Amino acid sequence: MRRFKILATARALPPRVLTNAELETMIDTTDKWIVERTGIRERRIAAPEVATSDLAAEALVSACRAGGLELDAIDVLIVATSTPDTLFPSTACWVQHKLGLRGPAAFDVSAGCSGWLYGMELAASLIGSGGARTAAVIGAEVMSKVVNWEDRSTCVLFGDGAGAAILTACDEDRGLLGSAWGADGTLARVLYQPAGGTRQPASAESVAARAHTVHMEGNTVFKHAVTAMSEGAIEALKRAGVSPEDVTLLIPHQANTRIMEATRARTAIAPARMVSIVDRYGNMSAATIPVALDEARAAGRLQDGDIVAMTAFGTGFTWAAQVLRV
Ligand code: ACO
């Protein structure tokens, strides 16, 4: 067991709500299609001047306030994102820039929708090895700026937001009980943003071809997501020595209700124990699990000593699952 406690969590969500009814006026879609296929009813959209680090910084400051912690008590700052402010420096460094933070190690994790759990795995290991005492792990995305708003098969799915957790070393029996993670880069092109990196730098052609936006084979993602998220969760539970009945809450990555429900059913965790926020926020990629965790804590659904199972899948493909005693 890698011991730590979650000192605090927080979320930052842009105030602007984009409903399915409004999408009906923008593209050839219906509220009925979106709700039946995804469970999403509305999502938040960042204002044009807002970048990922703005949401990440807001979530971090709120988490520090909630935990009664000064910002400079953080030893390591990890931001999980697929929508960084810039290719370099990292969004984590832009968070420091915004908050005037000097000193703590800061870097991004690029693992798509699994990114926050990848960040948690790193933070748990750093705390376990003595490399850090206090770690901030933030999942933050502004997906709306990399979505093709004329592609109805993708633009209805995503939303913007950020969630943060602050982990601190502790001697109590709390922390990471078991985990499983992995990746399969052979499927990299199933879900990706083709241009903007060194493979296809920005050009007039790449902009005209909408190559800076999300390209996705939805059906393929769907099948792999259900398999990887359920098998990951089952493996993490096995390694943790925890049975499904002992799980207080299951927090799956919030891509859509059908993926989440199929994952839950395969893990045999009771329906009432699954946290679902996807109807209100859509798929916020790396931000979905920390936002859901924060909402569950705020609603009193998690008490000290409870066990939470989290599982995610995303571009790469990547997957990660963890079982925590909080
Ligand atoms: N409104 C209305 N019709 C639509 C829309 C829309 N927004 N989007 C697609 N359609 C149409 C298609 O054009 C197609 O029409 P056709 O039969 O005339 O060709 C029809 O609906 C069916 O399309 P499919 O793509 O087969 O629909 P499917 O049932 O697979 O649902 C969806 C699509 C919701 C994208 C599904 O594949 C899915 O959820 N995939 C997972 C993708 C995902 O969650 N990605 C997020 C990133 S990765 C992650 O977070 C796990």
TrEMBL record:
Its EC number is 2.3.1.180. PANTHER family: 3-OXOACYL-[ACYL-CARRIER-PROTEIN] SYNTHASE 3, BETA-KETOACYL-[ACYL-CARRIER-PROTEIN] SYNTHASE III. Residues 254-258 are annotated as: ACP-binding. Homodimer. This is Beta-ketoacyl-[acyl-carrier-protein] synthase III. Belongs to the thiolase-like superfamily. FabH family. It is found in: Cytoplasm. The last Arg residue of the ACP-binding site is essential for the weak association between ACP/AcpP and FabH. It comes from Nannocystis radixulma. Residues 107-185 form the Beta-ketoacyl-[acyl-carrier-protein] synthase III N-terminal domain. Keywords: Acyltransferase, Cytoplasm, Fatty acid biosynthesis, Fatty acid metabolism, Lipid biosynthesis, Lipid metabolism, Multifunctional enzyme, Transferase. Pathway: Lipid metabolism; fatty acid biosynthesis. HAMAP family: FabH.
